[in-house]
Amino acid sequence: MRVLILDDSAVMRKIVEEALRHADLDLTDVLQACNGEQGVAILAQAAVASQSFDLILCDVHMPVLDGLGFLHEVSRLNLAPGVPVVMITADADDPYLMSAIAAGAQGYIAKPFTLRQVQAALSSLPPLAGSRLPPPAVSSIGGAP
Amino acid sequence: MFAESCAAVDDSGRIPVDLSARIELSGGFAAQCAVCFPSQSARNLTNAFLESQDDWDDGMLADSVGEMCNLIAGGWKRRLGEPAWGADLSVPTLCRGREFAHPCDSIATLRRHYAFNGSPFAVSIVAPPATGSPHPAASGAVPYFTTDWNKGEVSRLANSLSDEE
Fold first, then answer.
1. Do the Cβ atoms of B102 and B32 come closer than 8 Å?
2. What is the pLDDT of residue A92?
3. Sign of the CA dihedral B162, B145, A8, A142?
4. What are residue A66's phi and psi, to 5 degrees?
5. CA A138 and chain centroid, separation
6. Which of A137, A141, B48, B111 is the most exposed place for a label (fewest CB within 10 A)?
7. Residue B78 near chain A (CB below 8 Å)
8. pTM of the predicted model, to two decimals?
9. How is residue B102 annotated by DSSP?
10. Residue range A111-115: average pLDDT?
11. Are B73 and A90 within 8 A, CB to CB?
12. B74, A18: Cβ pair inside 8 Å?
């Protein structure tokens, strides 16, 4: 499973990667970007090389190009069509998050998150290649109580 | 995500400030949330986030402090509810060797000390009075510093970071 993680925090990118590994995802490649512009560049390079991604996790607020801007650019350039994008946010009430969902993101994970919340958020997506997660029973989204 | 418990501690002493991070709320609700860490607390925080022992480069220290500020600010905004609906959270701004100066027109500031595994740090928030409320300095009221905060909000938030449910 090829995953792209976008977050301006290197610590958060590492935490998210580890959470995915603990969530029974068979990760073969994990690429990281520190902002949306870098993320778009990675996807563009992958498209040229006929490589695809299976999952994208994207922070909402990043410098240079934020999560919403990334979604718009990906859509405009038709990069990674059909690849689910899950937003990561510290603020589940963020209006930008709602805009990101409207722009095509298929869910979000709210920080701080537990492993179960990550699994629940990913289980609500269409079946992911390389995933041993059970099929969705109840659609749920992560977030600390 | 952060399997450490956190508790409010006596805040009469002084915490050395080696790394600070600040996040601003804007867009109808102007406020700030800042955290201050001594370097050893920042190292312990990074080790806790990454589940490792100093196996990372020093750039991760600032990241960790910024991320902690992000988590606290996001949790505070969520618990504020209506006054902060629609407000934007900035990305963290970082500072080394000192705390951020509070804006000169700040209305109310609350500062608390916390510790996880013996690693102290400080959290301060600056918020305006509620619309129609008397100036908090006059009334003694601090409307946006809710009782949840006084009960150890950061402690509950930090506990919710644990991977154990």
1. yes
2. 82
3. positive
4. -85, -175
5. 20
6. A137
7. yes
8. 0.78
9. P
10. 83
11. yes
12. no
